[in-house]
Design brief:
Helix content is 39%, strand content 16%. The chain has a domain of 243 residues: Vaccinia Virus protein VP39 (Rossmann fold, 3-Layer(aba) Sandwich), CATH 3.40.50.150. The longest helix has 20 residues. α2 crosses α3 and α12 crosses α13. With 356 residues, the protein is α/β, with parallel strands linked by helices. The structure holds S-adenosylmethionine (SAM). S-adenosylmethionine binds next to β10.
């Protein structure tokens, strides 16, 4: 079932993107900008790839649904070649794909699936930020519980480390703090040369002038969150200014969410920048994993069209609401955010999946 939003500029399909994409004509879409659901590879290894999504559902449904209300967020669909084959089929030759990964876990499997589907690999764009949470777990507590759980009470263990092993490993963890989100950049193979493809299909190039920062420099494959911590990690210019040549986008805030309680909303400015980069005005961008509809709003704001697909009926309703808010002023958006009691914190799945 599809609905036309924002005067037909955004087409929203409710359903599984594999089914929906199968109904879209070949070579009909100019670009795909998307951010698919998470994968937990250890679950995939344990249950087999085919059953991974169902197994993830079984194992995590309780915790995850309680946390997000949305078990579909955990799925192996982004690591399956067939998913990207469908995206490839509907894209025009030379059409770009920008795909955020299933966090750091499973990202390389997604990247391989995209290339195996027939896309030309155009490298990675990295979005670097300071606000990621460490995904590890306190090893000393786990060791103490394992060694002394039956002889010490909870208060004593909480004061730990108690055992020698816990003290020895107290300074260690099992993962680094995430500070970047990689985005796969890929392109459907051209037909002929770039010039021939551009003339035939209008795709195959990326926007440079419109993506220059303050009209200067060349757009880079590094995007920053605008925080001082990240900026300080980059060289300053002759006048000691922060790295102004990079595009800045902080993690999504209440304004980006516009009242949605979706747990993994991407910042609007970031998606707008990416949509602008890989399309020209009036072109069509596909997001098979629409979530709160950020790509739809970004495309509309950039004078493009969007085709969105979302499987979760709750989010489908939220996208419809969000698209109607596009025409509202900033005050109304703000009121919606407050009404929904949106906590101005980015979603992090780390602690839930720690140690898997
Ligand atoms: C990471 S979220 C996307 C968030 C989005 N970028 C935003 O800014 O709101 C992934 C979305 O894909 C949806 N999804 C998962 N499997 C799907 C499928 N097979 N077809 C369509 N949507 C799916 C989930 O319900 C979830 O809302």
């Amino acid at each position: 079932m599809a609905s036309e939003l924002l005067g037909g500029r955004v087409i929203l399909h409710a359903g599984d993107c594999l089914d929906v994409m199968a109904t879209l004509p070949e070579n009909s879409i100019d670009a795909c900008v998307t951010d698919g659901p998470y994968l937990l590879p250890s679950i995939a290894a344990r249950f087999g790839q085919a059953d991974a999504a169902a197994a993830q559902g079984r194992v995590y449904q309780g915790a995850f649904a309680g946390f997000t209300g949305n078990p579909e967020i955990v799925s192996d669909i982004c690591t399956r070649v067939e998913t990207w084959r469908q995206v490839l089929r509907v894209l025009k030759p030379g059409g770009h794909l920008l795909a955020f990964g299933p966090a750091s876990i499973g990202f390389s499997r997604m990247h391989c699936a995209i290339v195996d589907a027939g896309f030309e690999d155009r490298g990675l764009v990295d979005w670097i930020y300071a606000t990621g949470f460490p995904k590890g777990k306190p090893l000393d507590k786990h060791l103490d519980r394992k060694l002394l759980g039956e002889v010490c009470d909870a208060d004593e263990l909480a004061r730990g480390p108690v055992s020698h092993a816990a003290a020895f490993y107290a300074s260690r963890d099992i993962a680094l703090k995430p500070a970047k989100e990689p985005i796969v950049m890929a392109r459907k193979p051209l037909v002929g040369t770039v010039a021939e493809n551009l003339l035939a299909w209008g795709t195959g190039s990326i926007e440079i002038d419109g993506c220059r920062i303050n009209g200067e420099g060349y757009p880079t494959n590094v995007l920053l969150d605008g925080s001082a911590v990240v900026a300080d990690a980059f060289p300053r210019d002759d006048q000691g200014r922060t790295p102004a040549r990079f595009f800045f986008s902080a993690k999504a805030d209440a304004h980006d969410r516009a009242g949605s309680d979706h747990p993994t909303v991407k910042p609007l400015s970031l998606i707008q920048y990416l949509v602008r980069m890989v399309t020209t005005p009036g072109q069509v961008v596909l997001d098979p994993f629409a979530g709160s509809g950020t790509t739809g709003e970004a495309a509309w704001r950039e004078g493009r069209h969007a085709v969105l697909v979302e499987i979760n009926p709750k989010f489908v309703t939220a996208i419809e609401r969000r698209m109607s808010l596009c025409l509202a002023g900033p005050e109304e958006r703000k009121r919606e955010a407050i009404k929904a009691k949106v906590v101005d914190q980015p979603f992090e799945a780390g602690s839930l999946f720690a140690g898997l």
